[in-house]
Structure formats: C-alpha cells, structure tokens
Amino acid sequence: MNKWTLPALFVAAMALTVPVHAADIAAGKAKAGDSCSDCHGDDGKGDKKFPGIAGMPVEKFTQAIADVQSGKSGKNKKMIKEAKQLSADDVANLAAYYASLKK
Ligand code: HEC
User: Fold this and answer.
1) In this predicted model, what pLDDT tens digit does every residue of 10-35 receive, in sequence order?
2) What is the predicted pLDDT for the residue at 3?
3) Is the CB of 93 under 6 A from ligand 1?
4) Which amino acid residue places its CA nearest to atom 7 of ligand 1?
C-alpha cells in the first residue's frame, strides 16, 4: 500500500455513499401523487385539458418547471403555485420519476 491508497479509498467510499442530489424516483412518485397527478394524471399522460408530461427528458422537465417558477411560462394558477412550492430536490425527484414513465 503506498501512501495514497488509503486517501484514494476514502474518496472512493465517500463518492459511493454520499451521492449529492441523487434523484429519488420513489420520492418523486410520492410528490407527484400529492401535487401533480390531479391534473397530469396518475400515469403523467395528461388529458384534453392538461399536457402529458410522462417520458419527458430530465433537462426538458427541469427547464419547464424553472420557466414556470420564474414566470416565463405557465398560465394555470394552480400549476404555478405547485411549481413555486417545489424545492430543487423535489424538481430533481419529479424529473427522474416522470422521465421514467412511458409516454
Ligand atoms: C391545476 C392543475 C395542475 C397541477 C396541480 C399541476 N399542473 Fe403542471 N401544468 C398544468 C397546465 C394547465 C399546464 C400547461 C401550462 C399552463 O397552462 O400553465 C402545465 C404544464 C406543466 C409542465 C410543462 C409541460 C410542457 O409540455 O412544457 C410541466 C413539466 C408540469 N406542468 C409539471 C407539473 C408538476 C411536476 C406538478 C406537481 C408539482 C404539476 N405540473 C401540477 C396543470 C397542472
């Protein structure tokens, strides 16, 4: 073992055990059930009135929420209110969840 082996192992272990902002699909699903599925549907497919968001790529979803939060887009008052209540973690989890659903 040279003098770097232990520090290197330590760094590798930290990287494995403390993933910063790892998206949590289960948490995203729970949040979606609480806040989003009333309009976008349990399967995220939406309907005539509400856009489908299932299968949306993470970047596109994240940008869409950011645009609603910043007032750049969004007309539906409740949608805007829900978006503004989301933390960065919520958005990451929801993005992972909806991206995991079939279109
Ligand atoms: C009251 C119904 C309603 C609720 C609740 C709601 N939305 Fe929406 N959502 C809409 C509507 C309507 C739009 C279309 C834009 C608009 O009119 O504001 C939209 C648009 C979106 C878009 C952009 C779609 C696109 O194609 O650009 C995303 C992403 C989205 N909603 C995610 C969510 C998430 C995540 C939640 C839960 C935190 C949520 N919505 C809760 C009604 C809702």
Assistant:
1) 666 666 655 555 899 999 999 999 99
2) 74
3) no
4) 79
